Recover the amino acids of this structure.
């Protein structure tokens, strides 16, 4: 793979942003928001799934995950083309 322009790299070195130092600070805002969003999503999902009303036990959770994993493996096997 090559870039379309040979004078530019794929990765931007933050040290090379001499006059635009503020770009590094501004880039942190969406990164922090995305990190917080993913963390809260995981925590809220865990709270909802582990409620007493669901009456899920560890064996039932493992069985559900096992069935889900088995279906995904079957999907992958069926999607893979067979060799003659």
């Amino acid at each position: 793979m090559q870039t379309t322009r040979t004078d530019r790299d794929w990765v931007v070195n933050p040290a090379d942003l001499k006059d635009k130092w503020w770009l590094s600070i501004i880039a942190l805002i969406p990164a922090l928001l995305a990190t917080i969003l993913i963390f809260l999503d995981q925590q809220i999902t865990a709270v909802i799934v582990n409620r007493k009303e669901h009456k899920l036990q560890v064996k039932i959770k493992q069985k559900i995950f096992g069935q889900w994993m088995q279906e995904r493996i079957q999907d992958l096997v069926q999607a893979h083309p067979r060799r003659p």
Notes: The CA atoms of residues 14 and 21 lie 8 Å apart. The first helix runs from residue 22 to 49.
